[in-house]
Amino acid sequence: MSKISTVRKKELDLIARERADEIRRAWGLGIEPVSDIFGLIERRQKDVIVLRYPVSSQSLSAFIAINKDGSLIFVNTNMSLGRQIFSAAHELSHFLYDREHLHHNLLVCDPGQSLEDEREVLADRFAGALLLPEEGVRNTYYSMFGYKHTATHGTVMTLQRIFKVSYAAMLFALLRCQIIPTSLYNHLKKLGTIENAELLFQEAKKYGIKDLVAPTRDKVIPASLLHALTSNYTEGRISYKKLSSILALWDKVPEEMGFTYEEFI
Predict the structure, then answer these.
(1) For labelling, which of 97, 103, 121, 218 has a CA lying 20 to 30 Å from the CA of 262?
(2) Residue 249 pLDDT > 60
């Protein structure tokens, strides 16, 4: 795969930002932070199921599968919440713009790591622009800290809590928006390195954002599946035992999800 030139990367960045701006306008998001990217995708794309489930592989962040009956976006929750959110936005880009190019209707991704694949770079840039719109980042930063503030690790983490992204993504957004200089960016990004993972976690705890930097391992029942289970159970098409066995995949019991035992004749 040939290397993407600097000029082409700038072109891809512009395309991605235009796409993200278009989606934000169409979906009425304005310049505000996206509070729940997973729910947003399911609400706006009715034929998409977002499955968040932990798998042991650290090399599998997310994938998208598409067929004539609908689409599935899988997000590995054995990753930090910040990573999960970015991965979901990345896969949304593939769903919206790359469906006709998906080979075998399945695309396994490693968001942020495929630097020479144009579609992957576009999806990364789209995710960043969707989650961290430049005008929104600037407005939030300057309204909270003013124009003379010198950003610190704490500044980045305070903004993380608002925009719900990883430390690296939030810090890069400050650089992209020309809020901080390259020298300060290079200094602050040291906290996000692998060797400083424990220090990053401890700092994140102080700011109430530890889930954004550490694996959550959540097992989240897709909203569409829960709706289907509810209608099928209340209409007597599945038994209490079958309902229990399905919910057990998510370590849940029927009563915990609002179901009561009913015996259908």
Answers:
(1) 218
(2) yes
For residue 182, CA distances in Å to 50, 131, 168, 187 come to 36, 22, 14, 9
Separation CA 162–CA 160 (nearest Å): 5
Helices marked H in the chain? 6-26, 37-44, 81-97, 118-131, 134-145, 153-163, 167-176, 182-188, 197-206, 210-213, 223-234, 240-248
The pLDDT score that the predictor gives to residue 104 is 60
Rounded Cα gap, residues 196 and 233, in angstroms: 49
Indicate the burial class of 200 (C-beta count within 10 angstroms; 0-12, 13-18, 19 or more).
Answer: buried
Alpha carbon distance 1, 119 (integer Å): 12
Predicted TM-score (pTM) above 0.70: yes
Domain boundaries, the chain: 6-131, 134-213, 223-257
Level-2 CATH architecture, domain 6-131: Orthogonal Bundle (1.10)
Strand partners, 70: 67
Distances (CA, A) of 107 to 53, 55, 181: 17, 17, 36
Percent of the chain with pLDDT strictly greater than 70: 96
Stretch 182-205: mean pLDDT, rounded? Answer: 95
Mean pLDDT estimate for the chain: 91
Burial class (CB in 10 A: 0-12, 13-18, 19+), 182: exposed
**Three-class HEC string of 22-44:** HHHHHCCCCCCCCCCHHHHHHHH
HSE (side-chain half, CA atoms, 13 Å) at 262: 16
Q: What are the tokens at 252?
A: 């849940």
